[in-house]
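Need a sequence for this fold. Nothing fancy.
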């Protein structure tokens, strides 16, 4: 598949249901290589990637499931909760989950820079996966139980967990979520 960057941007969706089909290790490397080519503050390349499979996904799912269950119980709409609960427990059945880490800031002004650099890597990762026909879903919800995640994944205190994404072949084709201002009338101000 040959996809230009604008195609990948427009085709990417948050995918929450995956086929059990495994993802080739070579494709995972290509995706992480794209992430590793992101720009970074002071060229520190302040990111690391955990490639999670098997039993560890199940443990992560149990943690996220508890987060979503607590949220669903506090809401009026249990039906919407059911769907999310299923997604949470297995990360949508994805065979791989990628966790993006950055360095804990050693100065207050570096926190933003570290987070932004790792977020640039995360977006590259999502777009590269799209270009290879793979689905992803940028997620920070699981960080609500960060303590468990750190234990499950063995993340030390000098690293921050930035985001998590399942990675796999989509078992759904979600429609595009409408943009609030597709014609960019309110989101853009030209300053002269
Ligand atoms: C910072 C960030 C955090 C997100 N966290 C979650 C999450 O915890 N769970 C989830 O299902 N989706 C999460 N999403 C995905 C968004 O819900 C999704 O991107 C949005 O609804 C737009 O849909 P699209 O990605 O298909 O365009 C997150 C996205 C971003 C950028």
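Here you go.
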């Amino acid at each position: 598949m040959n996809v230009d960057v604008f195609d990948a941007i427009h085709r990417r969706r948050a995918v929450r249901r995956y086929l059990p089909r495994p993802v080739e290790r070579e494709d995972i490397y290509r995706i992480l290589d794209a992430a590793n080519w992101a720009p970074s503050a002071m060229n520190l390349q302040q990111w690391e990637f955990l490639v999670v499979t098997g039993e560890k996904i199940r443990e992560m799912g149990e943690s996220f499931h508890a987060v979503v269950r607590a949220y669903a119980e506090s809401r009026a709409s249990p039906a919407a909760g059911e769907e999310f609960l299923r997604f949470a427990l297995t990360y949508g059945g994805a065979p791989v989950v990628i966790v993006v880490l950055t360095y804990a800031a050693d100065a207050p002004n570096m926190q933003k820079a570290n987070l932004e650099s790792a977020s640039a890597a995360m977006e590259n990762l999502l777009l590269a996966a799209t270009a290879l026909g793979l689905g992803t879903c940028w997620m920070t919800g699981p960080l609500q139980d960060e303590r468990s995640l750190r234990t499950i994944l063995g993340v030390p205190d000098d690293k921050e967990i930035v985001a998590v994404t399942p990675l796999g072949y989509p078992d759904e084709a979600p429609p595009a979520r409408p943009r609030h201002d597709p014609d960019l009338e309110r989101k853009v101000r030209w300053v002269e």
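For context: The radius of gyration is 17 Å.
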